[in-house]
Amino acid sequence: MPRLPTERTAGEPAVSAASAAHARADSAGAELVEHVDGEGNVLEIVTRAAVRQGVLRHRCTYIAVVDRHDRIVVHRRAEWKDVYPGWWDLAFGGLCAVGEDWVSAARRELAEEAGLSGEALWPLGRMHYEAVDGLVLGEVYLVRSDAEPTCPDDEVVEVDRIPIGDLATWLDGRLVCNDSRLVIAPLVVTALAAIAR
Fold first, then answer.
1. For 143, which of 111, 120, 136, 151 is 20 to 30 Å away at the CA?
2. What parts of the chain have a pLDDT lower than 70?
3. Do residues 133 and 83 touch, judged by C-beta distance below 8 A?
4. Which of 155, 131, 110 minimizes the C-alpha distance to 55?
5. Helix (H/G/I), strand (E/B), else coil: 56
6. Would you list the DSSP string of 92-153?
C-alpha cells in the first residue's frame, strides 16, 4: 500500500520544525494573488512570492481586535513568515485571494489567524501603504471582542493585550510591522477616540 507523504515508517526521523516551517513558507509563496493598481484594478495574477520579490501592489485586509477595556490584541508573527518574521503586529489579516471580496477575506483571515468567527466587522477605511518593503492597498476593520484568540494556525506564536493609552510606549520597545506602526495604530486610536465621544 502506498504511503501518504505525511506518514512515517518505523525508524524514519520526524520532520524537523525548521523543515516544516520551510515547507509552509514555500506553500504560501506559491499561492496566487492579484497584482493591482492604486485603485484595486487587477493588472495580473501572480504568485505571492512574485509579489514579495517584485514589491508589487496587492490587496490585504487588516483586522484590529479591541476588547471592552480598550485593549488591542497584538500578536507576534511566526519566524517562517515571508514578511516581518518574528515581529509584532497590531492587526490580524493578510493577502486577499484571487477574486475574494474584502469582507470575505477579512473574515477568513480573522478565523485562520485568531480563531475568531462571527464577530462584527467595523470598517475603518481603505489604506495605502507604500514603502520599500511593500505596496499595499488595504481595507482596515475593527472588531470589538473579549474572546480569547486561539490562533489555530501556526502563523501566530504569541498574543498579548495592550491598553490603547499605553500603545505608543509599547510600540517604542518592540519590532513592529511597519504597516501596523505607521497606518494601523493611528487608524485604531482615532476610531476609538471617536467611539468614546
1. 136
2. 1-27
3. yes
4. 131
5. coil
6. EEEEPPTT--HHHHHHHHIIIII---SPPPEEEEEEEEEETTEEEEEEEEEEE--PPP---S
